[in-house]
Amino acid sequence: MIFSSASWVRQKFQSWSIHHFPKYYFTAPEDQNLISLLESCTHTSEICQVHGSMVKTGLVNVPFTLSKLLASSIQDIDYAASIFNHIPNPNLFMFNTMLRGYSVSHHPRQAFVVFNGLRAQQMILDQFSFISTLKACSLELAHETGQGIHGVVVRSGHGLFTNVKNALLHFYFVCGRIGDAHQLFDEIPQKIDVVSWNTLLSGYIQMSQPTMATCLFREMCRKGLKFSTTTMTSVLCAVSDLGNLDGGLPLHGHCVKMGFCSDLNVATALIAMYANAGFIDLGRKIFYQVPVKDVALWNCLIDGYARNGQLQDSLALLQLMKHEQVKPNSSTLVGLISACAAAGASGVGLCIGNYVEEEQMALDAVLGMALVDMYCKCGFLEKAIDVFGRMEIKDVKSWTAMISGYGMHGQAENAIRIFHRMEEEGCRPSEVTFLAVLSACSHGGMMVEGISFLEKMVQEYGFSPKVEHYGCMIDLLGRAGLLEEAHNLIKSLPIEGDTTGWRALLAACRVYGNVNLGERVKRILLEIFDEQHPTDSILLSSTYAIAGRLPDYTRRMQEIKEEKMKKEAGCSAIEMNE
Q1: What is the DSSP letter of 453?
Q2: What is the DSSP string of 260-297?
Q3: 565 in helix, strand or coil?
Q4: In 3-state terms, what secondary structure has residue 4?
Q5: Residue 240's closest CA among 187, 290, 200, 282?
Q6: What are phi and psi of 245, to 5 degrees?
Q7: Helices (H), 85-228
Q8: 336 close to 304: Cβ distance less than 8 angstroms
Q9: Can you tell me the distance from the alpha carbon of 212 to that of 201, in angstroms, rounded to the nearest whole number?
Q10: From 21, 396, 406, 578, which residue has the greatest number of CB atoms within 10 Å?
Q11: Cα–Cα distance between 531 and 178 in angstroms, integer?
Q12: Which of 515, 516, 517 has the alpha carbon at shortest distance from 548?
């Protein structure tokens, strides 16, 4: 394939280079020919062929043609960099091309190096120089660097450009600087640009502040600004997050009036809004009204049914999607798989797993993790192990799901083995990973290993243990019968006011019949809570019974009856084949 494409480029280039390159300069039609040829290149190998011919004919010495070659090369940023580094005196367009390339690459930080090189040339920057560099700052969450560039923007007068302002707004929101973003927005003299408002709206959505987004939308209404489909998508997402159907119905009406419902993004937001409010059937009506449906629209409806507990309907939609010859992606199934895991719906989960194999879908980190988690929670550990082994790329969530799966199935040693394998393969564990392995150690009674992991978490990885981590350690010590040690640990913690660890200790007192410590823990729990909790009283009464103090047990049970304390009823569910 490479050889055929290379010969095609060579043939195309030679067919007109002989006639048009005698002086290495172009007239307008020939310029367009080269641009068309470069735009038709889809692989680096083809661009390389054009580059080689340009070297032979001397066109690499012409700034215009060299700029076009560089612009076509940024799909392979390393190749573009090799061209750029050999240009003696790159112009502003060439610098901006590299900035744009790095801002959409896997190495956005390199844009800062190019930007500094551009400033060192003492060239007059334009708005595109700032926009691309700010985009790189957003990807890297480089707050200080972005603030410095903001200063350069102000001093150079480019703050008057709306596109630069919007890039700064986006940057501050991505970095979580809501105050800075709003201050910048307030400094805009005439707030008539809808893009700026949309940037602020989407920023509030990203920062999980839907109330602020709806307030901003009302301000847009008061100012009489014209809404775009982007505006409606953002405000519908805000209303969806709030679960405010009363606020969403007028928006739906406005979308119908303005003809926005045919827009895929708006239709997807409307379906999500109705699904979150529990009216998924209304969302399905919108779905059928859209003439051309993309995979995101299908995903939204399937996920909506899954979140509303209607797993069979989600599965039926998945089959319909296949019938309509729409190719699913990992996002299509992840929400449905997660719902199966939460509900313990093993039958539907197995159907989805079979569907993934039938469609030969790639087990990426997201889909693979969801399947591993679902199989573990539904009791199919062997299937989880098989999926995990077939995953080509494993992120920290994938490893954590497998460690947690081994732990919940009582295989603490395998959980520890997978943790060490994760470290060997260069994947850094997260706080959740440590929680999973500590939980596995707790259920497996592996006290020494649990203490070792807690030390590793603090000393090697620099994490501060949270209440859940200490809860596992207290439970671990309690299961081992080291009640006083567990008591001393919980007393030394800065989270003494949390009840999780204390209840774990009280449960351990019940197992070993330690009445004295149990009564002390019960008193502390009573001080934390201003009211009696039935679980605490039942645990203490059971402690009396196990210790053989039947009179105290009888007295305690009588007090529970007199105080009319009721323990929340538990329930179990089983899945039956019809």
Answers
A1: H
A2: GGGSHHHHHHHHHHHHHTT-HHHHHHHHHH-SS--HHH
A3: coil
A4: helix
A5: 282
A6: -70, -35
A7: 92-103, 110-120, 127-140, 143-156, 162-174, 178-186, 194-206, 210-223
A8: no
A9: 8
A10: 406
A11: 40
A12: 515
Q: 576 vs 84, which has greater pLDDT?
A: 84
Residue 291's CB: how many other CB atoms inside 10 A? Answer: 6
pLDDT tens per residue across span 130-164: 999 999 999 999 999 999 999 999 999 998 888 99
Longest distance between any two alpha carbons in the chain, whole Å:
111
Distances from the Cα of 144 to the Cα of 110, 165, 185, angstroms: 16, 17, 19
Q: d(Cα 328, Cα 149) in Å, to the nearest integer?
A: 41
Find out whether 394 and 368 touch, Cβ atoms under 8 Å: yes
CA distance 317 to 303: 10
Yes or no: say if 349 and 317 are a contact pair by the CB < 8 Å rule.
no
Query: Are the CB atoms for 311 and 341 separated by under 8 Å?
Result: no
For residue range 379-435, what is the model confidence (pLDDT) as tens digits? 999 999 999 999 988 999 999 999 999 999 999 999 999 999 999 999 999 999 999
Structure tokens that stand for 229 in this block: 């489909």
Residue with tokens 């197995």: 350
Q: Which residues contact 156 (CB under 8 A, 6 or more apart)?
A: 125
The b-or-e profile of 47-69 (16+ CB within 10 A means b, else e) is bbbbbebbeebebbebeebbbbb
Q: How many CB atoms lie within 10 A of CB 450?
A: 25
pLDDT at 528 over 80: no
A 10 A CB-CB count for 247 gives: 17
Judged on CB neighbours under 10 Å (0-12, 13-18, 19+), 45 is: middle
* Tokens 């660097």 found at: 145
d(CA 175, CA 169): 10
Taking the C-alpha atoms of residue 165 and residue 190, their distance in angstroms, rounded to an integer, is 13
**Distances from the Cα of 259 to the Cαs of 156, 245, 246, 249, 290, in angstroms?**
42, 20, 21, 15, 12
- Residue carrying the six token digits 């119908």: 256
Query: Which amino acid would we find at residue 570?
Result: G
Residues 6+ apart with CB under 8 A from 332: 295, 298, 299, 302, 318, 321
Own/partner long-range contacts of 378-384 (Cβ < 8 Å, ≥24 apart): 378/340, 378/341, 378/344, 378/345, 378/346, 378/349, 378/350, 379/346, 380/346, 380/350, 381/405, 381/406, 381/409, 381/411, 383/353
Instruction: Look up residue 243 and give its amino acid.
Output: G
Residue 27 sits at φ, ψ, to 5 deg, of -95, 170
